[in-house]
Amino acid sequence: MKKTMLATATIILLGFSMNACAEANHQAMHEMMMQQNQMSAPQVERTSLHLPPAMKQHQLSNMRSHLEAVQSIIGLLTEDKYVEASAVAYSKLGATPEMLKMCNMFANEDFKKLGLAFHKSGDDLGDALKTGNLKQSLQALHTTMNYCVSCHATYRQ
Questions:
Q1: Nearest CA to 60 among 155, 146, 150, 147?
Q2: What residues contact residue 53 under an 8 Å CB cut-off, 6+ apart?
Q3: How far is it, in rounded angstroms, from Cα 73 to Cα 75?
């Protein structure tokens, strides 16, 4: 009986030790991979827009509003509410007079062009959504989102 208990305890302790070694090995491997990725990943510098604090906050608020609009459009598409989704695209992502005015306030010409193209794509998205064609609508949404990705990859506040 004592031998059985001793053998069981030994096996349990051995199991815990092996698990601890495996966990430590996994952690070391993870840290090594992270270091390797940091060393091999190209350091991409994004262009600063040098915005004053108030303008920076306003711009961040607008981008969050754009993201909420995309979320709303996707939700409306799941309910086949193309007309409502189109209205959101025009009013929240499109080239409204307010958005055109704001885009034209930026000194960086390339950023300005990208912003204007984004808002034009919002209008194109609104047009596509009006058709009620899901594939065409998703292609237009993809184009609009490409402007977001491109801008965020290129610029920082």
A1: 155
A2: none
A3: 5
